[in-house]
Amino acid sequence: MPVPLLELSSLHNPWDITYKRLISYIIDDLGHIWLDKLTPQQVQAFYTKMLTDKLSSKVVHEIHGVLHLALKNAVRWGMISRNVCDLVSPPRIVSREVVPLSVGRPGASPSQVHPGPPI
């Protein structure tokens, strides 16, 4: 039996939530600027602000991807003449080193050892 269209549209999609969150960052900081007035310096300052607001470099890199695609479509549709994201360097993704505490590690007191997530 086919699923009605209403049920298909109400299915939970985690990518949709992530995309909306990334879009909200862009709109909050750059939404007041007209597309044809957006400069590479403004975009670079936006990325720097996002990094100083404690967002990870991976999230800021994802924001760059969403903004770049949006501006690429605006160029294709004739709304702007150039994509300013082509002139901006996206942040390099920096991996954080994870050092897990274990019960058997020398120097780890019981107050420093946190139980892991339930399995």
Your description of this structure?
With 119 residues, the chain is mainly alpha-helical. The protein has a domain at 14-87: Orthogonal Bundle (DNA polymerase, domain 1), CATH 1.10.150.130. The protein is built from four helices and no strands. The protein has helices at 5-9, 14-30, 40-52, 57-76. The longest helix has 20 residues, at 57-76. Residues 1-11 have low confidence and may be disordered.
Tell me, what's the shape? elongated
Tell me the fraction of residues in β-strands, as a range. under 5%
Which regions are unreliable across 5 or more consecutive residues at pLDDT < 50? Answer: 1-11
Global mean pLDDT? 80
Short description:
By secondary structure, this protein is mainly alpha-helical.
Q: Would you spell out the secondary-structure blueprint of this structure?
A:
Elements: H1 5-9, H2 14-30, H3 40-52, H4 57-76
Helix pairs in contact: 2-3, 2-4
List keywords for this structure.
mainly alpha; DNA polymerase, domain 1; 119 residues; disordered N terminus; 4 helices; single chain
